[in-house]
Amino acid sequence: MTMSLSRVRSCKNFLALVLLAGVMPASGLGQADQPRFKPGFNLFSRAQDVEIGKEGVAQIEKEVPLLKDPEVERYVSDLGHRLVTYAPGEKDYPWTFKVVNSQEINAFALPGGFIYVNRGILEAAENEAQVAGVMAHEIGHVVMRHGTNQASKAALAQAGMSVLGGIAGQSGSLVGQLTQMGVGFGLGSIMLKYSRTAESQSDDIGTYTLYHAGYDPQAMSRFFEIVGQKYPQRTLQFFSDHPNPENRIKRVEEFIPKLGPSKAGRADSPEFQTARKRMLGLPAPPKAQPGAQPAAQPTPKPSSAPTPPPAPSSRLVMYEGSGFAIAHPDNWQVQRGKESVSMAPEGGVFRGPHDEWAQAYGASISRVVPAQNQSAKLEDVTGALIQSLQQSNPGMRVLRQKKVKVRGRRALSTQLENDSPLAGQKEIDQLVTVQGRDAVIALVFIAPHQEYKSYQSTFQKMLNSLEIR
To answer: How far apart are CA 417 and CA 442, in angstroms?
Structure first.
């Protein structure tokens, strides 16, 4: 098994870039001052969103039964395309809207504009505005590119900081690369597992879209509340795929005044009632096969390393990396990525509470090749790395920074404090960025705060051994 620097940083995604951007504030209520939405960092182009989405469609439609009724399909497709015209952002995708023949209350969106609405949504909804709210929420996931945002996160976890140079974005076989990285395209795919931040952003876009399309803008959040109370067993999958943001209704109510003057939005339409009545008269959907739905997982406990790792050996051995070489204690294990490597004592890397890899001790090294439109200056690369670290790790803070020399090369040493994957502890992350000929070598030395001093001499010996080639 290979683990890169990003992967072993646990669910904190240690070297992930800012993956989600919120609503940009607006001043005033005119059309030009409407809330603006900006997708987060993404390694893929919008055309590649479509490519990845099509692969997802091929897999999804092997896993779920589709409702084959032309009238219901036409109603959902017409409603979806109408909502897209009112959604914010870039939206020239080959939009398709399909109905899954399942009474589970769920909906999901694949990158590139491929949206699926379960039959259970239309049966449980009280009016068209509620269905429109769910669909507008899913449209929000597409226009904010949350799916490939998640795929970018997985790519970073495999290739480390080298991805910052645009490696994934330059490939012509992204789907194959993602498959090799373990990013699937089925119902359990990470592209359908969003954070609460992503859910909040899609709530905002759903509300925005409802308001401008002339619907009651509170319909979406009200629907989530109603069905969560009325059909708790039928909504388990929805809230598993769509983690419920805190104070959802309150947030929506606070957001609505930013959209413009208060106005009474419509709630229903004869078309919805006709389609719903027709659907209720159709045969019951097929029963799920045993094992088709993922079993509920127990609530994870806080992670802790099984046993404290042994002290670093005084004997160092050399590791030959891509564009660099570095010594490490001979009792440390090396895990290689494409352009990055982690080195840790036994017990220094372990499974975290969500079955992710977490590193509490050791070092990680990556080679950063800035893209053509990015600054290659040491200070700029370091600043971008620190900013992304802090954005993806809210508890991280900079303690100090200084200019240093590493084997005669310009370098910056930045000491960061962060939450450790060891329950209830803080850690020191010493980020050292070293200027190379065509890249920056970034090293992170990691240890719990109270043990950092005992590792410091080993970290310094490793740094002194660094060779850049």
So the answer is: 17
**Structural domains of the chain, with CATH:** 35-280 (no CATH), 316-468 (3.40.1000.10)
- Tell me, what's the pLDDT at 24? 41
pTM of the model: 0.57
Report the C-alpha gap between 101 and 118 in whole angstroms: 6
- DSSP symbols for 85-123: TTS-S---S--EEEEES--S--EEEETTTEEEEEHHHHH
* 343 phi, psi to nearest 5 deg: -130, 125
Residue type, 221: S
Determine the Cα–Cα distance for residues 198 and 417; give it in Å rounded to an integer.
Answer: 26
Bridge partners, 433 (sequence order): 412, 442
pLDDT at 241 over 70: no
**Could you count the other beta carbons within 10 Å of the beta carbon of residue 372?**
7
d(CA 53, CA 42): 15
Q: Tens digits of per-residue pLDDT, 369-403?
A: 766 556 778 888 888 888 777 766 778 899 999 99
> 113, 96 in Cβ contact below 8 A?
yes
C-beta of residue 107 within 8 angstroms of C-beta of residue 115: yes
Residues facing residue 403 across a β-bridge: 412
Q: What are phi and psi of 253, to 5 degrees?
A: -60, -35
Query: What's the farthest any 2 CA atoms get from each other in the chain?
Result: 78
- In DSSP terms, 115 is beta-bridged to 97, 109
**Is 20 in contact with 149 (CB distance < 8 Å)?**
yes
* pLDDT tens per residue across span 17-70: 333 334 443 333 444 467 888 888 787 889 989 988 898 898 888 888 999 899
